[in-house]
Amino acid sequence: QVQMVQSGSEVKKPGASVKVSCKAFGYIFTTYHITWVRQAPGQGLEWMGCIGGYSGKANYEPKFEGRVTMTTETSTSTVYMELSSLTSDDTAVYYCARGDTAPDVWGQGTLVTVSS
Amino acid sequence: DMQMTQSPSSLSASVGDRVTISCRASQSISRNLNWYQQKVGTAPKLLIFATSSLQGGVPSRFSGSGSGTDFTLTISSLQPEDFATYYCHQTDTTPWTFGQGTKVEIK
Fold first, then answer.
1. Mean per-residue pLDDT for B50-75?
2. Cα separation, A107 vs A62, whole angstroms
3. Does residue B23 contact residue B71 with C-beta atoms inside 8 Å?
4. Do B46 and A59 touch (CB under 8 A)?
5. Do B43 and A95 touch (CB under 8 A)?
């Protein structure tokens, strides 16, 4: 059964960084991209970028360029998304999902709260 | 960035109703358009990809159509479990973008 399992909730102070993990199960990790999407409280979905499971090459939404880093660890079928210089506007649920052009299996979401 | 505009932003409907949600792109996106359903507190669920292809396990009452800039999601007979928020999502031009969502509520 294909599953994406994300790391747990985080509370961070403004200016800090957060690193969220997403572990893939039930398929060949290197055959799919992984997409990251976030959702602020009560708001819509926002695409952050995606990374190739095989190539490790990432494509970021320009508004996050310079603040976001997506990496893969093929030995453990895990993808990481690190976001730096956090502000209160980064408080959101962060989702990973399998695939790039039609993400089909989503993680459960990771709540990141930025608060002083 | 490609702007995706959904209409309406919300609607009220009864069980059994036919429901139509529209999504308009600011430029042509060919048929590179997906639809997602999201229920409160859960991750989005892929319903339709590439404008009209039904994702496995999704009931046939859901259908999609369109091309270029105008797209439609149709629910032929609304069921109680369909009350949710629906998002269109273009994957033609990076950065991929989502519509703002359409909340389907019980009348």
1. 98
2. 23
3. yes
4. no
5. yes
Residues B13-54 pLDDT 10s: 999 999 999 999 999 999 999 999 999 999 999 999 999 999
What are the 10-residue block averages of pLDDT along chain A, 116 residues in total?
A: 98 98 97 98 97 95 95 97 98 98 98 97
Are B95 and A95 within 8 A, CB to CB? Answer: no
Give the model's pLDDT for residue B106: 87
Looking at residue A10, its pLDDT comes to: 98
DSSP assignment of A45-107 equals -EEEEEEETTT--EEE-GGGTTTEEEEEEGGGTEEEEEE-S--GGG-EEEEEEE-SSS--EE-
Per CB-CB distance under 8 Å, the chain B contacts of A104 are 46, 49, 55
Query: In which region does residue A66 sit, left (phi positive, over 0), alpha (psi from -120 to 50) or beta (all else)?
Result: left
Neighboring chain B residues of A95 at a CB cutoff of 8 Å: 43-44
CB pairs under 8 A between A and B: 48
The Cα A53–Cα A4 span in angstroms is: 13
What does the alpha-carbon distance between residue B53 and residue B59 come to, in Å, rounded to a whole number?
Answer: 12
Contacts of B100 in chain A (CB under 8 A): 44
| Nearest partner of A90 among A23, A11, A35, judged by Cα | A11
